[in-house]
Structure formats: structure tokens, C-alpha cells
Recover the amino acids of this structure.
């Protein structure tokens, strides 16, 4: 976790420095705000990982001498297959097209999207469809 | 420049010094080109620049082009040499597994930093020349870009209107004519004098671009750009809108005619009278 | 049922996983990163071919003065859609949705992406977004025709009315979310699903680059989405964010767009830097030279790329020239490091010139000059003279052509892994030479005609300009390049008809994907070698030729039998479980 956090914190520090140089040489607000946002984007997860990395015992993937058996066992639950991402994608696209063709496409789109969200929740509860 | 180092030290440091010496060549050439004024050197495809500003850009171009080409050739040579010399000769050939060389890596970090510092210096110097505006321009021209044409309004050095406006008259055609055709407006400038251009647009973004002046600048709604042209020779030069502005963008042409100051004065008076008469009759 | 992925123990046994449904339903419901990755690549290649055909029409139009092959309006649609398809729907999705999706989980030893269903959603948003963009051609007013950068106020409702431009905006919002979701997925996968022993400094350079690309996506795409939402509001809600009339600021669009746009350039390039790094190492039979330097260079490029956006706006007269010029120059330093490291990787190697390696070296040769001309353009005075001319077109096509080399490099390299059969080498090399020759014919004439003052995005020019010959040469070059792409398609067809089976590790590869079967089983691995360096498969296959560093550390203890290495190290670490 240490390298991950340092990587993000480095980006954040870089953005902080450039943001201040940029602001004080140009007083241009749009760019300065965006650079500040980059700083936060690195700082929040980077800081969290840093905080966390000091409290946890190194994971097998952070351990240079770990062997495969250290990580053996459950890695995580991966849904086998699911129709809902497709339905959600279609629903989202149709909803978005409402911004071109008027709100009627959103009726279909939102119906699809909402059923997909319900579908995913049910699927996860039941342990998924395969 | 640096003198020869007759056979010293180990083979390794010698090679390293050779790398450094190679790297110093672009600077020598760059400096040389800039000092020479760039007039004797080839153009590498570019215009020499018919204004003092454009010529400053041209000198920078020559310097950068030579430096860039040298760097490119060195790196290309290294790539192709490595690719050619180390082809696999036997299927079971096993090379040494070296994977780092810290001193070497430091060198090829530091050398580019130096190159960058040098070109940045020349860039800033040139940029200041190109963007400098004179306090006392001989003439001011207010340029308005619009879809799809140009309007040049002449003002004197103090910004007072002189009653001369040159404007695109014909509607855009389906096909472009030569830029100097009477279909398109012509900006007339006095040779050797500094003319202030005040540039804006009343619809979308356009770009006043005169290739022979090595210069383009956006014409924008809501933001006025100001710059100087100090022409250095007479002639007729083509100009064109370079920033895409919609359907007839390719037809948004104009030309620039640079004439001796005396001729310019005559032209201005004739135009004043002609346009005044026109204004009276219409 | 949800599959509970298990990490195979050291000496595993092939587990028979279900392969999911086959056919169309299988494709629609798949959440397997390998299926999604292949779908991405295929879709992206289709958009590449479509945009390539548009390019050929553009070139045909420009091959003669006073040309009327297509109308001005059509021409404007064509270059807008050519650029948009190539950048938004081909390179990025191919690299990040395609190659990264497929190979990042495998290279870190993971069974799948961290969020498989989100991954599938990314693909569907990409596909629907892409079709929406192309669908603009079917509307009454035609597709968007304001260039791929959609500068305000040209893109407002007065100057670009109609459904086509709105579809372009909506399409970019959809594909933008798709990219963001994939970004989240890749970053999480690299942070949380690495195999034991795969420390961050053993992650292959390819995957590192994809990780950094993912972060850049998270930085850049939200800005684009926000800018597009405001553009839509200007067009339909009567706001005046980018229009002067109501007190708006047109140049704000450019600031927002390029704050996305320049990092986007590196979002497109970094993945291929990674591909080429891996490929050069494999075919040189050597470790990556300067592995850590490579990674630091990638991170520095990413960091600097957030602070150079206004080098696209030098001619607006509204930006701080020296700041952006210096920042842009500085990118040359890490890029230079990468070049010397690539050369160092080949240096004194044993280089096998496969088709993939041809494209890898081609990438270096072409990208280099794109970088050099980029340095010219980072100098404001030179940009004043060449901005919006064919010089710029040549500069960035030099770069994007290099990315196409990177794409072919990746395809030839990983095709056997993905499909289980090999592509023909000789056709691959023929395709390379055609593409390479065409590249230079086209680019050199573009550079020169640009210096002679030919602006970009013009539908036609008069013969009095003197640009005719150079344009004809450029068009000829474009068709030679197209022939190169056609040979690739022939290659795929021929190799598919009479298939040569691919072994698991045809190139003596070094990273974990070469420990998997070709193609990999569901959840990728039945067995993993011990991970002791950034090239575990190489270490396993050539225990006497590992990198010196590893050699030195382990020389004392390492027995020559690789199986013993695993157990030897397995003992001294506690039985801690994966969180
Ligand atoms: C056979 C290969 C290609 C040819 C012949 C080609 C040709 C062209 C031409 C002639 C233009 C200029 C249009 C104009 O300004 O009037 C253009 C623009 C452009 N091309 Fe390509 N191109 C090719 C491949 C690519 C690739 C691979 C990419 C990106 C990955 C790309 C991205 C662009 C972009 C972004 C523009 C700018 C569009 C705009 O001005 O809005 N092109 N291309
Ligand atoms: Cu225009
Ligand atoms: Cu950029």
C-alpha cells in the first residue's frame, strides 16, 4: 500500500506546486481551480492509503518474499455473467438521448435503467445468475 | 569550442565524454545560426518572414530545426544501430541480463534538461520580440473578422478614424479564387513602418494568418488582440482565415500589399476621397 | 451463481470452470474481462476502419485544386467525424478498454477485473455512445461539423444548430463515463488484486503505464463531461457560459477542453509506451533497461501533462506563454529517458525480428520525430507561424500514426494469447513496410505544405497557392498506408482459415500472461510461477539468467530447481490470508 499512496501523493504535491505557481503568475481562475482539483484527487485516496498502510500488516502482494500459497484461497466474489450491465447501458444511453430527441426516450431509458438496478441488487442478494 | 582530449582515462569515460561532445553540437549550431542572423542559412521550408517580427521567428525556427534534426538523427541512429547490430544470430543465443546503469541514466536525464533550458531561453527572447508593441505606431488598422469576410478600418497612430475601410464585398463562393483576386479585400501597409493591428470578431473565432509574415492570431468575440507588423519588404502576400469558422471557412481569403511609405500615403488619400464620395452618393 | 474465484495454490490442478453461455446471449451477459476486452478491440478497430475511409475521402478531395468530390458541408462533417472517431472511439478504447482490460488483470495475476459488472457496463456505454456519435450522419442536418474540439461559440445553437451536434455531445458524455468506469476498474485491480509477491515495483511496465493512464482518465474526463454539460446548457437552456452576448467567456471552453485534451493525448500514448516496452524486452531477451526510471518517467509525464494545456491556445493571445512553453518542453525530459531506456533494452540483446518487433521499432522511429516537431510547436513564436496549418496536422499524425504502430505491435504480440492461433509473420512484415513507407510519404508532404501556409480544415484551395503537388503526394501516401491496413485484414483472414495453433508462450515472454494458457482459461490461471522480479515467467524458464539484482539477492539460497524456490520461500512467511 505504501508505493500506491506515495504515487498518488506525489501527483497531488506536483499539482499543488504548479497550481500555486500558475495562480500567482497568471491569476487565471479556471486553470488554477482545475489544478487544485488534481491536487485533491491525489490527496484524498493517497492520504487514505497512507493512513491505512501504516496500520495494516503488509499484504502478500506487498511482500517481496511472499509465495503463491500465502494468497491462496478466496480472492473475491466475481459474478459469473449478468444481463444487467447491458440493460443498464442501454437504459443510460436512451436516457441520455432524451437530451437530443426530447423526454420520450427517457421513459424507455429510465424504465430499463431502474429495472437493471433492481435486477443487479436481486442478483447480488441471490448470489447471481449464471 | 571544446578542445580535443588526447587519449586519456578509461575507455568508458572517454565514450561518455564523446556523448557530451556530441550533445554540445546542437548548441553550437543553434548559437551560430542565431548570431549569423539567419539570412545566409537555408529556410528548411519556412518563410523568411517579411516583417521584423516574422524574421525573428524565422531565426528561432532555423535554430530549433537544426537542433531538433541533430537530436533526431542521433537517436534514430542509436535505435537503428541497436536494431541492426543485435539481431539474434543463433536461436539459443542468451544475452547478458544487465538492466540498469545509474550514471548513464543520470547523464541522459541531465543533458535534455540543459537542451531544454537553452531552447527555452531563445524562445522567450524571440517571443518578446514578436509580441512587443510599439508606443508610437505609424498607423493603426482595426481588423474585424466575421463569417465569412474581413473588414480593415484605417486609423492614424492615435487611433483616429481616417475614413478608409476595406471590406469583403462579394458573398462567399463555392470555390476559392487566388487570394489576390479582387473578390477579396486587400490590406495595404507601408514598408518599414510599424503598424498596429487591433483584431477582433463579432461572431465565432477566426484567425488572421499571413504565412509570409510567419504569424497568425485568433480573432475572437469578446477579446481584442493587439500586435504590430513592421514590414521589411514590398510585395503582395496571401492571407487566409486559419481557424475553422464554419461552412465557407476555406473561402475566407484576403491579401496584404506592402508598398513604400510615399505610395501608401497617396493610396490612403485617394481612398479617402473615393470613399467619401461614395458615402455622399449612397 | 457467483463464482468465488480462488487463488490457485503453488502447484495447482487445472480447475474446470464453467465457460459461461456461448453465442449472442453469452456476449451480452459476459462479465469476463477477456470477452469484454476483445469486444472493445473489435469495436474500436471497426471505428478505425470507418474513420480511415473518411480520411481517404478527405485526401481524395484535397488531391486536386478546386475539388468538388464532396461538398463543403460534407467535408466539414468528414474531418470532424474522422478526428472524433479516431481519438474518442478508436485509440483510447482500443488501448484502455481493449488491451488493458484483457492484460492488466492477467499481468498482475488476478482472476478478473475488480468490478466485472461495471466493466461490462463500460463497454455498453462505449458501444451505445459510439453508435450515437456515428448516428449523427442520419439526422437531417448531418453529423457534427465543428471539428473534434468543438470550439465555442462555433458549437453553440446559433452557429451549429441541429441534432447532429447534440448527438456528438451526448456520445462524448456516454463514452466519457465508460472511460471513467474503466479507469476506476483498472486502478482498483492493480491496487487490490495483485498476486502474492507482485509488489508495485514488480508490476510490469505495461501495467504501470495503464495504471497511470487510469489516474489521468480520472483527472481529465470529468472536466470534459462538465464542459459538455455546460455546452448543452448553452445550446438549450439559454445560459451564456461560452457566449459573449450574455456575459460569457468563449475562451473558457478552450481552457476546459484542453485541460482534458492534453492529458487525453497521453491517455492515448502511455498505453502504447507500455506495450512497446514489454515487446522490446521480450524480443531482445533482456529485462527492461532502467525499469524504475521508466516508471518515474511515466509518472512525470502524467504529472506534467496536467500543466501544459494552453500550448494549444498560444494564438488566442490570452494565455501565459512562458509557463506553458516551459512545462511543455519539460515533458521532453522524461520522454527522452524513455527513448534511451528503450535503446538500452535492445542494446546487446538478442533481437528476434518478428512482425510485432517491426511495429515496435517502427513506433520508436515515428514517435521520435513527432516528439521533435512537438518541441518546435511548444515554442510560441513557431506556433504562431504554424498553428492551424498542415504542419500541426503532420505533427500530431506523426504521433497518432506511431500509436497505430503500437496497436499493431500489441495485436501481433498478443494475438496468439487472445485467440490461440498465430498470425502470419510475412504478411505482418509486408503490412509494416507498406504502412511505414506510406507514413513518411504522407507526413513529409504535410510538413512542407504546412510550412508553405496551407491551413487545416479547408475543403479546397486554388491552384494559385502552389500546394497541388504536395497534396497529391500526400494522398498517394495515404492510400499506401491504407494498403498496409488491408494486408493486416488479409492476414487475419488467412491465419483464421488455416490456423496454426499457438503454444502458451510462443515468444519466450517474461510476464505473467505467458504463464496462462492460450487463450487463458476462465479466471485466467490454474498455476502461477513464484514472483521474484518484474518478469516472473522468464525467471522461471531461465533460472540461470535472471536479472542481476535477483541473482545477487537469491544466489546464496536459490536452488537451481525452480520448484524448490517456491517452497523455500513459502515457509518463512506467516499464514496470513488475503483481506
Ligand atoms: C491513414 C491514416 C490517416 C489519414 C490519411 C488521415 C488524414 C487526415 C487529414 C487529411 C486530416 C485533416 C483534415 C483537415 O484538417 O482538413 C486529418 C485530421 C485529423 N486526423 Fe487524421 N488521418 C489518418 C489517421 C488518423 C489517426 C490514426 C488519427 C488518431 C488516432 C487521426 C486523427 C485526426 C484528428 C484528431 C484530426 C483533426 C480533425 C479536426 O481537425 O477536427 N487521423 N486526418
Ligand atoms: Cu475560418
Ligand atoms: Cu497538448
Amino acid at each position: 500500500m505504501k508505493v500506491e499512496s506515495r504515487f498518488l501523493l506525489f501527483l497531488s504535491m506536483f499539482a499543488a506546486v504548479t497550481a500555486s505557481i500558475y495562480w500567482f503568475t497568471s491569476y487565471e481562475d479556471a486553470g488554477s481551480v482545475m489544478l487544485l482539483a488534481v491536487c485533491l484527487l491525489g490527496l484524498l485516496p493517497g492520504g487514505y492509503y497512507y493512513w491505512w498502510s501504516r496500520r495494516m500488516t503488509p499484504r502478500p502482494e506487498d511482500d517481496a518474499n511472499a509465495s503463491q500459497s500465502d494468497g491462496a484461497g478466496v480472492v473475491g466474489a466475481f459474478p459469473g455473467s449478468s444481463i444487467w450491465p447491458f440493460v443498464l447501458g442501454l437504459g443510460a444511453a436512451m436516457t441520455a438521448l432524451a437530451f437530443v430527441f426530447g423526454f420520450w426516450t427517457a421513459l424507455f431509458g429510465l424504465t430499463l435503467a431502474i429495472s437493471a438496478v433492481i435486477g443487479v441488487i436481486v442478483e447480488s442478494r441471490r448470489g447471481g445468475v449464471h | 569550442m571544446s578542445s580535443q582530449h588526447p587519449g586519456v582515462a578509461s575507455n568508458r569515460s572517454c565514450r561518455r565524454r564523446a556523448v557530451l561532445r556530441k550533445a554540445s553540437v546542437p548548441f553550437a549550431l543553434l548559437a551560430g545560426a542565431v548570431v549569423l542572423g539567419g539570412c545566409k542559412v537555408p529556410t528548411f521550408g519556412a518563410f523568411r518572414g517579411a516583417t521584423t517580427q516574422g524574421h525573428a521567428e524565422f531565426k528561432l525556427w532555423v535554430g530549433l530545426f537544426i537542433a531538433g534534426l541533430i537530436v533526431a538523427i542521433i537517436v534514430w541512429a542509436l535505435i537503428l544501430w541497436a536494431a541492426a547490430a543485435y539481431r539474434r544470430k543463433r536461436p539459443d543465443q542468451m544475452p547478458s541480463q544487465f538492466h540498469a546503469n545509474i550514471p548513464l541514466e543520470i547523464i541522459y536525464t541531465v543533458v535534455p534538461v540543459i537542451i531544454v533550458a537553452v531552447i527555452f531561453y531563445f524562445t522567450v527572447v524571440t517571443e518578446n520580440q514578436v509580441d512587443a508593441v510599439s508606443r508610437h505606431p505609424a498607423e493603426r488598422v482595426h481588423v474585424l473578422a466575421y463569417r465569412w469576410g474581413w473588414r480593415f478600418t484605417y486609423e492614424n497612430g492615435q487611433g483616429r478614424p481616417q475614413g478608409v475601410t476595406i471590406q469583403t464585398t462579394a458573398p462567399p463562393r463555392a470555390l476559392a479564387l487566388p487570394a489576390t483576386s479582387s473578390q477579396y479585400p486587400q490590406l495595404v501597409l507601408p514598408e518599414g513602418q510599424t503598424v498596429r493591428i487591433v483584431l477582433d470578431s463579432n461572431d465565432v473565432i477566426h484567425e488572421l494568418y499571413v504565412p509570409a509574415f510567419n504569424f497568425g492570431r485568433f480573432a475572437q468575440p469578446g477579446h481584442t488582440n493587439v500586435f504590430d507588423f513592421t514590414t521589411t519588404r514590398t510585395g503582395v502576400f496571401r492571407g487566409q482565415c486559419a481557424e475553422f469558422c464554419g461552412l465557407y471557412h476555406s473561402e475566407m481569403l484576403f491579401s496584404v500589399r506592402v508598398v513604400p511609405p510615399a505610395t501608401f500615403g497617396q493610396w490612403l488619400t485617394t481612398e479617402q476621397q473615393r470613399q467619401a464620395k461614395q458615402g455622399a452618393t449612397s | 451463481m457467483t463464482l468465488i474465484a480462488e487463488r490457485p495454490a503453488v502447484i495447482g490442478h487445472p480447475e474446470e470452470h464453467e465457460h459461461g453461455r456461448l453465442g449472442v446471449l453469452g456476449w451480452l451477459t459476459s462479465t469476463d474481462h477477456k470477452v469484454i476486452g476483445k469486444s472493445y478491440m473489435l469495436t474500436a478497430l471497426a471505428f478505425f476502419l470507418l474513420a480511415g475511409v473518411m480520411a481517404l475521402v478527405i485526401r481524395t478531395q484535397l488531391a486536386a485544386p478546386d475539388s468538388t468530390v464532396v461538398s463543403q458541408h460534407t467535408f466539414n462533417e468528414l474531418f470532424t467525424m474522422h478526428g472524433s472517431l479516431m481519438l474518442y472511439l478508436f485509440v483510447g478504447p482500443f488501448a484502455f478498454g481493449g488491451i488493458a482490460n484483457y492484460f492488466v488483470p492477467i499481468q498482475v495475476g488476478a482472476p478478473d477485473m475488480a468490478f466485472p459488472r461495471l466493466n461490462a457496463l463500460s463497454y455498453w456505454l462505449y458501444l451505445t455512445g459510439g453508435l450515437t456519435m456515428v448516428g449523427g450522419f442520419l439526422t437531417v442536418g448531418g453529423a457534427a461539423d465543428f471539428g473534434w474540439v468543438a470550439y465555442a461559440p462555433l458549437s453553440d445553437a446559433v452557429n451549429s444548430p441541429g441534432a447532429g451536434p447534440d448527438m456528438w455531445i451526448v456520445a462524448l458524455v456516454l463514452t466519457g463515463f465508460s472511460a471513467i468506469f474503466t479507469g476506476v476498474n483498472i486502478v482498483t485491480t492493480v491496487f487490490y488484486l495483485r498476486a502474492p509477491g507482485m509488489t508495485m515495483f514488480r508490476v510490469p511496465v505495461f501495467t504501470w503505464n495503464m495504471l497511470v493512464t487510469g489516474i489521468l482518465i480520472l483527472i481529465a474526463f470529468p472536466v470534459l463531461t462538465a464542459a459538455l454539460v455546460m455546452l448543452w446548457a448553452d445550446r438549450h437552456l439559454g445560459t451564456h457560459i461560452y457566449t459573449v452576448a450574455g456575459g460569457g467567456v468563449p475562451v473558457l471552453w478552450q481552457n476546459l477542453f484542453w485541460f482534458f485534451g492534453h492529458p487525453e493525448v497521453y491517455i492515448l500514448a502511455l498505453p502504447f509506451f507500455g506495450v512497446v516496452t514489454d515487446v522490446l524486452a521480450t524480443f531482445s531477451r533482456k529485462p527492461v533497461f532502467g525499469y524504475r526510471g521508466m516508471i518515474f518517467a511515466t509518472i512525470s509525464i502524467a504529472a506534467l501533462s496536467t500543466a501544459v494545456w494552453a500550448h494549444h491556445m498560444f494564438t488566442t493571445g490570452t494565455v501565459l506563454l512562458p509557463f506553458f512553453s516551459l512545462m511543455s518542453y519539460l515533458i521532453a525530459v522524461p520522454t527522452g529517458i524513455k527513448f534511451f531506456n528503450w535503446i538500452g533494452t535492445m542494446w546487446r540483446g538478442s533481437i528476434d525480428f518478428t512482425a510485432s518487433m517491426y511495429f515496435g521499432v517502427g513506433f520508436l522511429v515515428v514517435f521520435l520525430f513527432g516528439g521533435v516537431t512537438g518541441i518546435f510547436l511548444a515554442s510560441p513564436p513557431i506556433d504562431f507561424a504554424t498553428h492551424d496549418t498542415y504542419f500541426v496536422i503532420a505533427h500530431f499524425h506523426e504521433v497518432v500514426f506511431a500509436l497505430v504502430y503500437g496497436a499493431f505491435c500489441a495485436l501481433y504480440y498478443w494475438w496468439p494469447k487472445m485467440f490461440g492461433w498465430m498470425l502470419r509473420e510475412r504478411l505482418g512484415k509486408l503490412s509494416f513496410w507498406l504502412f511505414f513507407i506510406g507514413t513518411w510519404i504522407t507526413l513529409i508532404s504535410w510538413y512542407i505544405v504546412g510550412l508553405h501556409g496551407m491551413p487545416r480544415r479547408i475543403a479546397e484551395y486554388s491552384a494559385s497557392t502552389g500546394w497541388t503537388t504536395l497534396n497529391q503526394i500526400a494522398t498517394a501516401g495515404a492510400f499506401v498506408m491504407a494498403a498496409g491496413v488491408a494486408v493486416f485484414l488479409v492476414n487475419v483472414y488467412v491465419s483464421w482459415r488455416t490456423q496454426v495453433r499457438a503454444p502458451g508462450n510462443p515468444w519466450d515472454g517474461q510476464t505473467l500472461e505467458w504463464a496462462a494458457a492460450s487463450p487463458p482459461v476462465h479466471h485466467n490461471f490454474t498455476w502461477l510461477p513464484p514472483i521474484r522480479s518484474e518478469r516472473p515467467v522468464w525467471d522461471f524458464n531461465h533460472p540461470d539468467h535472471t536479472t542481476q539484482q535477483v541473482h545477487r539477492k537469491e544466489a546464496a539460497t536459490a536452488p537451481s530447481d525452480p520448484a524448490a524456490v517456491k517452497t523455500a520461500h513459502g515457509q518463512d512467511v506467516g499464514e496470513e490470508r488475503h483481506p
